[in-house]
Amino acid sequence: VALWQRLQNKHWRAAYPEMLDYNDSGGYGPLRRAVADYLRVFRSVRLDADQVLITSGTQQSLELCAHLLADHGDTVWLEDPAYWGAVKAFTATGLAIHPVAVDEEGIAPGEADERKPPRLIYVTPSHQYPTGAVMSLARRQQLLASASRCNAWVLEDDYDSEFRFSGPPISSLAGLDAEGRVLYMGTFSKVLYPGLKLGYLVVPKTLVHAFKQAHYDLNRPGQMPLQAALAEFIEMGHFASALRRARQTYAERRQLLVDALAPVLDKGLGRIHGAAQGLHLCLRLPAHADDRAIAAQAAREGLTVRPLSAYCLQRQDLRGLAIGYGYAAPEAIKRHGPVLARVVQAALPDGGQARV
Ligand SMILES: Cc1ncc(COP(=O)(O)O)c(C=O)c1O
Q1: Which residues of 240-262 are buried (b: 16+ CB within 10 A; e: fewer)?
Q2: Is the C-beta atom of 81 inside 6 A of ligand 1?
Q3: Domain extent at residue 270
């Protein structure tokens, strides 16, 4: 915190008038270069820094894409279940949402879906939100082929790819894209903090000019001293250190949570999905479980967990809990984890019959 404050003070003191104005160049140059360098090495994205736009986070990146790439009433494919932020962004821009079910390998569009050809396809392939599915390489290639047949843009939300705890890294969709139809978005909310409100959007070369102009016209971006502080934070290696520390911290928290849920798993009442990646895991429950009632009971016990069924757009078959551990201190997980396990067991008294 002290270092971050020092860097911010330094860049505020050094701020020249242009740094206090709106910015029309897509963000602070050195920050765009630092993001491009990171993505080239860690996410296999082939890009120039000029293709990077600094935004106020994923939400703004999504809104920009919806405004620029689609017209009112156009179809967007969304994963079912879906990230509420994406649902809100696309609903607010008047797009028609077409849900496509997610399985263990991620979004699984079929021929019937292609009969509703989308203008946009929104996906979270590194760690599907909320089920936690990691999209397989084969599925990534199928999705790109499907996007190509439908002539759709693919919006890749790589919101927590920095946190891969086990298994081989899989190239981003943007890294596999040979046709320039993937727009890649990332955020600093997870490694640093959500209130920082900084993220990035990588657009194909052909769209750079239009996106910069629209970003300026719609959002009047600024915060240059803050962006400069972040650029220096990355250049000096502090971001890499923060990431290393955060990975270790979250891996420990994840393990504590998994341990606390052992009684539920041992009795076959639930299965954990998506724990190899990210800052949340998904506890899948039997189809007859009332996950909303379980989440409500957990809330009465002072715990915040989200029912999987609340994220479903169309499907009726999914029950479970999305459990975040990014904000929970180890002591809190040790104290509350067993409470959650008890709440789940109490809600599924028929034990063996309720196997997932
Ligand atoms: C799927 C997904 N995308 C993006 C974000 C973060 O977005 P932002 O940069 O708007 O904070 C989150 C945060 O929880 C998320 O779950």
Answers
A1: eebbeebeeebeebbebbbebbe
A2: no
A3: 240-348
Look at the block and give the residue holding tokens 């104005």. Answer: 21
How many other CB atoms are found less than 10 A from the CB of residue 13? 8
| Number of domains present in the structure of the chain | 2
Helix, strand, or coil (residue 288): coil
The preferred substitution site among 184, 187, 192, 306 for testing ligand 1, maximizing ligand atoms within 8 Å of CB, is 187
Do residues 68 and 211 make contact, with C-beta atoms less than 8 angstroms apart?
A: yes
Condensed to tens digits (0 to 9), the pLDDT of residues 17-27 reads 889 999 999 99
Contact of 124 with 266, CB cutoff 8 Å = no
Nearest-CA residue for ligand 1 atom 7 is: 58
Q: Is 57 in the pocket of ligand 1 (CB under 6 A)?
A: yes
Contacting residues for 172 by C-beta, under 8 A, at least 6 apart: 39, 43, 44, 45, 125, 126, 156, 158, 161, 184
Domain co-membership, 255 together with 163 = no
Indicate whether 223 and 96 sit together in one domain.
yes
| 332: CATH | 3.90.1150.10
Q: Which residue has the higher pLDDT, 354 or 263?
A: 263
Give tens-digit pLDDT for 144-179.
Answer: 999 999 999 999 999 999 999 887 778 899 999 999
Q: For residues 161 and 21, give the distance between their C-alpha atoms in angstroms, rounded to a whole number.
A: 33
Atom of ligand 1 nearest to the CA of 188: 9
Residue 236 DSSP one-character state: T
Decide: 184 and 45 in contact? Cβ < 8 Å: yes
For the chain, the average pLDDT equals: 95
Ligand 1 site-directed mutation target among 129, 250, 327, most atoms within 8 Å of CB: 129
Strand order through the sheet with 106-107: 52-55, 199-202, 182-187, 153-157, 120-123, 75-80, 96-103, 106-107
- Expressed in angstroms and rounded, the spacing between residue 31 Cα and the centre of ligand 1 is 20
Nearest one of 54, 51, 57 to 210, comparing CA atoms: 51
CA 60 to chain centre: 13
Is residue 354's pLDDT more than 70? no
